[in-house]
Design a protein that fits this description.
The chain has 244 residues and is mainly α. It has helices at residues 2-5, 10-18, 20-53, 59-65, 68-71, 74-85, 92-97, 106-130, 135-142, 147-176, 179-182, 195-204, 208-243. α3 (20-53) runs antiparallel to α10 (147-176). It is globular and about 70 Å long.
């Protein structure tokens, strides 16, 4: 892909990446993907905590629904989300009354990315909570720690590596997501156009070098982001091993 992106020379490569359309799509794609992954962390943690710590009627159904974004075709998810959040949709009808444009906007893209991203966090944290030894919580309680202090000082540090792993997978999925976003985004150049869609547009125009150039850009930025997250994970693991 990198070789193909330079097949028409470095000038074409730089011209493609420096265009206003590509720059706007890059800012939107990585900005909304990062926001969706960050929101997915507390959401996935909350869902995993609820499923593990509380037993209630329908918990098994909700546990199965967490995996729905994995099994549901992304195009079907995109159509369903667009139907729900459009101006006449069940949810969008109320949001538009409050002046919130949910569909065909960056917010709509964020909703779609959050839908496909948060299960990665939930499924990364859930096994850690299931294997957690509650004896640590009991020991903290005997020392006078409140539930809130016990969570932040005892439980949450143990969940950080799993949360970071889920965040990494959620971010990677969001950056490359296409099917669930293409319908709800509206695909307006410079406003709601994402990089995966722009790659498809370049391919339809037989601009293979331009499509490869955008793919190379996504590859480079994604690598830097994931490399940074891995460095953070290693430092946390090193500190935990040193303290233990």
């Amino acid at each position: 892909m990198v070789w193909k992106s330079f097949s028409q020379g470095g000038g074409h490569f730089l011209h493609t990446l420096a265009s206003e359309r590509v720059l706007a799509a890059t800012k939107l794609t990585f900005g909304v993907s990062l926001a969706a992954a960050l929101i997915a962390v507390p959401l996935g943690l909350l869902v995993a905590w609820t499923l593990v710590r509380y037993k209630f009627p329908g918990s098994k159904v909700i546990d199965s629904l967490v995996d729905l974004p994995f099994a549901l075709p992304t195009a079907v998810a995109g159509i369903a989300l667009t139907t729900l959040y459009s101006r006449n949709g069940w949810v969008g009808n109320y949001l538009y009354e409050w002046g919130i444009e949910s569909a065909f906007s960056p917010l709509g893209i964020g909703i779609a990315l959050l839908f496909v991203a948060f299960p990665f966090v939930a499924r990364s944290v859930q096994p850690v909570l299931e294997d957690w030894d509650k004896g640590f919580e009991e020991a903290a309680a005997t020392l006078g720690a409140s539930r809130w202090t016990t969570f932040w000082k005892v439980i949450f540090p143990a969940l950080i590596p799993a949360s970071l792993a889920g965040f990494t997978m959620a971010l990677a999925r969001s950056i490359g997501e296409y099917g669930s976003v293409v319908f709800i985004s509206g695909n307006m150049p410079g406003k709601t156009e994402i990089l995966p869609l722009l790659i498809v547009t370049k391919l339809e125009q037989y601009d293979y070098a331009g499509a490869a150039a955008i793919g190379t850009l996504m590859l480079g930025i994604s690598f830097l982001l994931l490399f940074g997250v891995n460095l953070i994970q290693r430092r946390i693991a090193a500190r935990r091993s040193t303290s233990s």
